[in-house]
Amino acid sequence: MSTSEQEKAVLRAIGANDKDAIESIYKEHYGLIQHLVVYNNGTEDDARDIFQEAMMVLYEKAKSPDFELTCQIKTYLYSVSRRLWLKKLQLARRMETQIENFDHVVPVEEDLDEHEKLTNQYLIMRTAMGKIGEPCKSLIEAFYVHQKNMSEIAGFFGYTNADNAKNQKYKCLVRLKKLFFAQYKNG
User: Fold this and answer.
1) Is 152 within 8 Å of 112 (Cβ atoms)?
2) How many angstroms separate the Cα of 98 from the Cα of each of 86, 91, 175?
3) More exposed terminus of the chain, fewer Cβ within 10 Å: N or C?
4) How far apart are the first and last CA of the chain?
């Protein structure tokens, strides 16, 4: 069964009010919509509301015999959720700029692909950071996350001066880069 055939089968199941199909959509795609809403000035409650509304739209469309899905369910839900959220933001006057031409700036598919790519890279980096070991992990976090300068890092980690700390940070970054790209190429 091809992916599009699987998507059509899931859509038919949703239209038939199949609880397993509906639950699987929630499990597979809620995180994406939650990230969209929370990343764009929303709360987790907002995300749940938007996802629920998008699921209702999908359910109503799935029940219609004339509806033909021309993209993946995930893309459809993302697009509907994005429109609902942007409309809610516009009505709440949270946004300063006009969003009427937003679709002309970033097509949904590109936005979704970019989000998935960044999420994947983040997960790979998090795994690489977990494998790098100490003191590299703490040193990199001190510099990039906590924004400590090299003199502070040298004092904290017991290096004789800022240049030695800088050299150690460089060696740690080289190790991190190797770990990251080894996973990135295999993923």
Assistant:
1) no
2) 10, 11, 45
3) N
4) 24
pLDDT of 95 reads 47
Q: Supply the pLDDT for residue 53.
A: 92
For the chain, the C-alpha Rg in angstroms (whole number) is 23
Dist. CA 155–CA 133, nearest whole Å: 20
Count of CB atoms situated within 10 Å of the CB of 150: 19
Q: What three-state secondary structure class fits 17?
A: coil
Most confident by average pLDDT, 18-22, 107-111, 122-126: 18-22
Query: How far is the C-alpha of 97 from the C-alpha of 48, rounded, in Å?
Result: 25
Cα 108 from Cα 116, distance rounded (Å): 12
Q: Which domains does the chain have, with CATH numbers?
A: 3-105 (1.10.1740), 109-186 (1.10.10)
**Beta carbons within 8 Å of 46's beta carbon, 6+ residues apart:** 37, 38, 85, 88
Structure tokens at 112: 């979704």
Query: How far apart are the C-alpha atoms of 128 and 130, rounded to whole Å?
Result: 5
Q: CA–CA separation, 19 vs 59, rounded Å?
A: 12
Asked if the model's pLDDT at residue 96 lies above 60, the reply is: no
Q: Which residues contact 111 (CB under 8 A, 6 or more apart)?
A: 78, 82
